[in-house]
Amino acid sequence: MSFSRAIKIAPSILAADFANFGAECRAVEDQGADWVHVDVMDGHFVPNITFGPATCAAIRPHIRGVMDVHLMIAPVDPYIEGFAKAGADIITAHVEAGAHIHRTLQAIRANGAKAGLALNPGTGLDGVENLLDMIDLVCVMTVNPGFGGQKFIDMSDKVRRLRALIGARPIHIEIDGGMTPETAPIMARAGADVLVAGSAVFSGGSVENPAPYGANIRAIRTAAEAATGTAL
Ligand code: DX5
Ligand code: ZN
After folding, report:
1. Architecture of the domain whose range is 8-228
2. Is 198's C-beta closer than 6 angstroms to any atom of ligand 1?
């Protein structure tokens, strides 16, 4: 997994057919997804429940590229080993999930995964400066976590400040929530390179009819690349 700031589209399987995750992961990758984003929710940190390490382990063989696991759970630490063993390439924990995010990030890397730090819309960048040497990704939430299909909350000012803070460090800026061909360029222009999209990727398609996934991914990518001037 070499570092690049090129735009990457990460479909969230929260919007996939839950009875068909393996085939859905293969379908979005075949249709041009760069990463697969896996939303883990516990019904405690967020008001919704999805799945845990066993499901991640089951879908892992169906993902050729990066499995990007977003933990919306509290506590985090007791489960890090399980998600790492399930094959997560990136494990992202929320700064709001506990008092000891530094320890959590250390544990993620110690378990062999890349470490991500997620920030809710109401959370500022205070403290991020102290963690820059222990993170591979910052996930800036553009919805309050818990559900797919919510309305985009513009966090471009936060992303611009974060981009300046990161400087030349190899840290991805990921945006999660409400990404569409209309909102993605706003965040790409501000400095994001990973765009998570659930409903905007999976709408209109299915495992039997995956072409709309490809069209949706291309529409988001093209709009974002045009905004950053990296389009061919
Ligand atoms: C929200 C999740 C997101 C979300 C994205 O709690 O972390 O990954 O499912 O879904 P859309 O793209 O539908 O907002
Ligand atoms: Zn997510």
Report:
1. Alpha-Beta Barrel (3.20)
2. yes
